[in-house]
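pasting for the record
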Amino acid sequence: MNKYLPILAMLLMAACTGQTDSTPEVSAKDSTNAFSATIDRDDPALDGIITKDAKPEVIAEGLEWSEGPLWVEDQKMLLFSDVPVNTVYKWTEDSGKQVYLQPSGYTGTGLTNSKEPGSNGLTLDLKGSLVLCQHGNRQVAVMNALLTNPQPVFQSLASSFNGIKFNSPNDCVFNRAGELFFTDPPYGLPQQSDEDSLKRLSFNGVFMVKKDSTIVLLTDTVTRPNGIALFPGDKRLLVASSDPKKPEWYVWDIDADKLANGKVFYSAIGYDSSWNGLPDGLKIDSKGNVFASGPGGIYIFNNKGKKLGLIRLENSASNCALSPDEKTLYITNDMYVLRLKMR
């Protein structure tokens, strides 16, 4: 998602009020008092995921719009995009934040005047290579270089559909078979809208890249497809919609290269208009619990779409990542990157 949408969302939702039965239990602030967070608990099941004394902490700051966090276990590093400045940073416990890859999303082959030309979502393919959703180049690409010594040389995995250029691929995920799923909203375009003169597709789609490199349109019914994730077993697909008028998450059953039985997983319509953010990036753990950025912070759902709690954040959250042991959650939070040791 782009950093300007929360302002629009607040205007559109000004007449709405949101209600919650949860009570803030934990708060955290840094020494500058610029960061604050609370954890709301809507269901006792959250205690098995996030302990009652857990506190989010700032591990990196000074960013324009942080996105796409990815924990790389064998390097003990967190990668994340700063989309407006066309850069991927890395963070390690010993060295903190450092430039990792620049350029990351625009290398001179696509958009030249985008407000957000850099990479957005990041993931690893089955070989351990870095895969980037590149706004500026309008493609999903794999970086053909060692993670320990990266060079900005990219091979396109998906750049067009039926010969028509993608809008700006936003987020992606692989299944266990190595098939790629990704979303394609217009946020990397100069006007960041469907009215942009550079937009070629007549829709914003959710796509699949099959093992033979065939690109399949899975659905064009989500107005602003954004975050995307697979439930354990790869039989269900979850997609966030960052449309201010329909801030919702949708789920489908996967039948080969088709989607079926689509429905609303959770709707945030009517949320508190003072909260920043919209449904954006998300991750799903091995038990099917969903960690999803949305209005007010990071939502935690069970696999049936029941809201267990909310990590309430003052600034817009864009995405999150889990450590392999699922005990630590990393959150991209506008100008910050946060770490929450959960249990």
